[in-house]
Specification:
Blueprint (H helix, E strand, L loop, with lengths): L4 E5 L4 H12 L3 E6 L2 H15 L3 E5 L5 H13 L3 E6 L14 H29 L2 E6 L12 H20 L5 E6 L27 H13 L4 E2 L6 H17 L13
Parallel strand pairs: 1-2, 1-4, 2-3, 4-5, 5-6, 6-7
Helix pairs in contact: 1-2, 1-6, 3-4, 4-5
């Protein structure tokens, strides 16, 4: 293939569908990954007709070994894969004590294991070509936990920490990593989350197209950590500065005075 390719997971609706449209507009051929074949095929036909790009679909359940392996093969063997959007995710918002353990395991499998394995698969080729972009979709709940979001927040905190580490690791390779932390966004993820979209204050919910457009502008501007709904860029910088300062303060080898015996 002569064009560069973007691989997008969770592409059949919501954030993934919008990324597919926006990257097709930018001229990328696409590989769209999701579980729902009919939706993928309809989206592929629409994008091919609108933008004249090649769109391949890959029906895969990323909670399964078979599904993950199929996508890993595409990423590892595709010399033109230049963008990976790790968007597929799952939210189950309920107190842990009231939740089936499978809800927790499913969130971990999709939000952590799949994202990590697909990144592993994509990186060697990107590093060897000295170019590539990995976009990891996290959440503001990766920075904050609510009484019903312990597991979901934990998985998204992993995505943030994982992405930060990769950014440092890949600083001189030509491969870029952006982590995007949306707040409430109008997607289907709410349908089965336990918290319906209708229960949220409409003023706090961002439209999906606005979120993705903002995130891509941030990518163009070189942002590595993007909170699309935060207007005060200095607030983000203060948070990052405080985080680093707290880590630095821990490097003493001495017990804090407040914790010494009296």
């Amino acid at each position: 293939m002569s064009k560069q390719i973007a691989v997008i997971t969770g592409a059949s609706s919501g954030i993934g569908e919008v990324y597919a449209d926006r990257l097709a507009r930018r001229g990328y051929d696409l590989v769209l990954v999701a579980r729902r074949a009919e939706r993928l095929q309809a989206l592929a036909a629409r994008l091919t007709g609108a933008h004249g790009v090649r769109v391949d679909t890959l029906v895969a359940d990323l909670e399964t070994e078979q599904g993950l392996a199929r996508v890993e093969q595409v990423l590892a063997s595709g010399p033109a894969v230049s963008i990976l959007v790790n968007n597929a995710g799952l939210a189950r918002l309920a107190p842990l004590q009231a939740s089936p353990v499978q809800d927790s395991l499913s969130q971990i499998a999709l939000n952590i294991t799949a994202l990590t394995r697909l990144t592993h698969a994509a990186l060697p080729g990107m590093i060897s070509r000295k170019e590539g972009v990995i976009i990891n979709i996290a959440s503001v709940l990766g920075l904050h936990t609510l009484p019903f979001s312990a597991v979901y927040s934990g998985t998204k905190a992993f995505v943030v920490a994982f992405s930060r580490g990769l950014q440092q690791e890949l600083a001189d390779t030509g491969v870029k990593v952006q982590v995007v932390l949306p707040a409430a966004t109008a997607t289907e993820v709410w349908d089965n989350s336990g918290v319906p979209l209708a229960a949220l204050d409409p003023a706090t919910v961002m439209q999906t197209g606005d979120m993705v457009d903002a995130a891509l502008r941030a990518l163009d501007q070189g942002e590595q950590l993007t909170l699309p709904s935060v207007a005060d860029a200095e607030a983000i910088e203060r948070f990052e500065t405080a985080r680093v300062a707290l880590f630095d303060a821990s490097q003493t080898g001495k017990v804090a005075p407040r914790l010494l015996p009296h």
